[in-house]
Every structure is written in C-alpha cells, then in structure tokens.
Amino acid sequence: MLLFIIFVVPLLVVGSFFWAIFLLNQNSGFLAWLIMFGGFYKVEPNQSAVLSLFGRYVGTNRRPGLHFNNPFFSKKKISLRVRNFESSSMKVNDLNGSPIEIAAIVVWEVTDSAEAVFNVDDYESFVQIQSEAAIRAMASTHSWRHTGCDETLVG
C-alpha cells in the first residue's frame, strides 16, 4: 500500500494534467508525456544529485531511490563514496634544506555536492593538486633530522 502511495499517486496527479492535454491535442499530449518522463531520475546509495535550472542552483537530493522533479532541471550525479589515491613521489627540501623524497596516500570524500559541481571544474584533479601542495608545504616546515638529540631518522 505504501508503494502505491509513493509511486502511483504522484503519477496520477501529474499524469492527469498531461492526460487532459493529450485529449485536447494528441501530438502535443505525446510531447507532454515525453517531457514528463524526463523528470524522473534515480539516486543510488552513496550518491547525490545536484539540481539546477538554466545554470542556477536549485537543490541537492541525497535520498536514494526514484524521484520526480521538474523535467527542465538538469541533474548532475556526484559520488559520495570514500576514495583514495597515492600521490606521486616528490622531491622537496625539509626545514633544514635537506632534500627528501616524500609520498602520501590521501583518503577523501565529497561532503558538499553543490560546491563540488559549481566551485571547481574537476573536483577529483582539484583534490589531487591540493593534496600534493599540502604535502610539499608540510614537508618544508618539518625537519627530517631531530635537532635536539643525538638520534636521527637517517642511518
């Protein structure tokens, strides 16, 4: 019964308007049905859909399932899964100016889908570039050798 209310009732409400158009003019009614079915979209688990209308942000849908919205909304799907990548090995100078080779494994996830879509062109490469810049900055502010004792990390 709940499935009937969730799926069929909205179709009947929305469909009654398009059925009236169909009865008035069969060609435009068929076109109206095609436009209406363009409003359906599916959101998978750990995914979100960013909705926009002619480039203006309208909202974000994070609930998994089949949804209906304005057929003219553009829907951009973004994965919310935790991802990781291994940075390339980089040669940088530490705090004392000693050259060291450093790499890192970065674990990240998208927390704000709208910012990932609208604030950067390619958020995956953005995370990679920013992570490598942060690794370089961190390595240059720390010393590889301990300065206050006789022990060192190097041989």
Automatic annotation (TrEMBL):
Q: Keywords of this protein's UniProt record, alphabetized?
A: Hydrolase, Membrane, Protease, Transmembrane, Transmembrane helix
Under the GO molecular function aspect, what terms does this record hold? peptidase activity
Protein's UniProt keywords contain Transmembrane:
yes
The Band domain is annotated at 42-143
Q: Does the keyword DNA-binding apply?
A: no
Task: Name its GO BP terms in alphabetical order.
Answer: proteolysis
* Membrane-spanning parts: 6-24
What InterPro entries does this protein map onto? Answer: Band_7, Band_7/SPFH_dom_sf
The record's section on Pfam families has: Band_7
Task: Name the chain's protein.
Answer: Membrane protease family protein BA0301
Species whose genome carries this gene: hydrothermal vent metagenome
